[in-house]
Amino acid sequence: GRRFVVKLDEPSQPEHATSADVIGATVYWAAGYHTPCNRIAFFQPDALEIAEGAMAGKGAEQEPLTRALLQEIVALGHARADGAVRAMASRYLPGEPLGPWRYEGMREDDPNDVVPHEDRRELRGSYVVASWIDHWDTRSSNTLRMWIDPDGDGRGHVRHNFLDWGDVIGTDAGPLGIPPRRGHTYNFHPGHVFTDFVTLGAMPRPWRHVERGPAGELLGYFDAERFDPEEWYPSVLNPAFQRATERDMAWGARRVAAMGPAFVAALVASLQLADPGAAAELERVLLARREKILKRWFRRLSPLTEPRLEAGAGGSGTARLCLRDLAVATGIVEWDARPYWTRAWRVEGERRVEALEPFPLRRRAPDRVCALLPETDAGYLIVDLTGQYGEGDRAARPARVHLARAEGGGLQIVGLERPYELTPPGR
């Protein structure tokens, strides 16, 4: 049969621990990472059966698991009026466990592990995903490598999993005064400590004079009002996060953008929270933090994505290069308040770049913008398409699409860049 790890809620924070693990696993899985399958479950204590030889505890402190001891454990959880106990059931990961992985270095005995972990975009960019749900405990102890060998012939591979999100969405765990600081500073931040010392605590801090929100114990101090996407901190230094660049953050923001209001609503509904008001507050906070993330990390590099070529209407020879604008798709900028402009170049020979006249633009609801490509015999085209945040915006940067002539004679997309600067290609 299937095997699960079952977790119960802390008496001091009913419904939190179980909800947190479901949120973390679901969000990270939706962002493209490997995670266990975590779900909310309810059970009647009398339905539990004790396997022969079952033990409780760890190491030398183990003792036989008796019915009385099991009842003591279950009694610590949160029960509904009908006596059913709320739990989080986490299905065992497939494969053989190899221990945790780290956010830096490589594993010498894994031939597929060839990029230092601190330089991997999916780990650097996971800062944005972690900040969204306030996953401040990003230590390697909350990861697990599994050996996957489906055929049993020794020719398998290592799968890197994230796990254990009991810290997210406002846990109250920790010494007195620590929970309000989570996500706003490290466990020990020398710079913050020094500033507070020399100013005698006069520097405003987001963790001072705060109160829990309308969701009370469930969300602790998890909110959107104090959240700053650029000033979010895990509990300890994370090598991958420290090396993250604007590109890594924008990549992570695109992962968060894919999880829209419908996703968030379904996620919160899956938690089966007893208080509809608390559920509504959780949904509001998640969406508000998401909006802040997108407004910040879509600002300096282009949020235009998913380039594709489309044939001209009616079979005409005028092809269109279309991109999806995530700033419009996610609602952080209004469609009518979004000016676009293009630049284009043809490349011949040894990188001889020749500027072309700007291509005409067409908007296509709900969130696409298309550049009409001219009929040309150029072997290589480079097209910049930029969306501005209002007239006069000079900070916006383009999505730069590379097109090459295919063997059949038509153009095909061969690359997408998001330059930091407005300089033409080749300079």
Keywords:
single chain, 427 residues, alpha+beta, Phosphatidylinositol 3-kinase Catalytic Subunit, Chain A, Domain 5, Immunoglobulin-like, 5-stranded antiparallel beta sheet, 23% helix, globular
Our estimate of the beta-strand percent is 15-25%
Work out the radius of gyration: 26 Å
Tally of contiguous helical segments: 10
Q: In one word, what is the shape?
A: globular
Strand order in space, largest sheet: 12-11-15-16-17
Helix content: 10-25%
What multimeric state do the chains show? single chain
Largest sheet: 5 strands, antiparallel
CATH topology of the largest domain: Phosphatidylinositol 3-kinase Catalytic Subunit, Chain A, Domain 5
Order of helices and strands: EHEEEHEEHHEEHHHHHEEHEEEEEEE
Number of E strands? 17
Briefly note the structural class of the backbone.
alpha+beta
Low-pLDDT regions = none
Q: Could you name the CATH class of the largest domain? A: Mainly Alpha
How far apart lie the N and C ends? Answer: 62 Å
Which architecture of the largest domain per CATH?
Orthogonal Bundle
Return the average pLDDT rounded to an integer.
Answer: 94
How many structural units, i.e. domains? 2
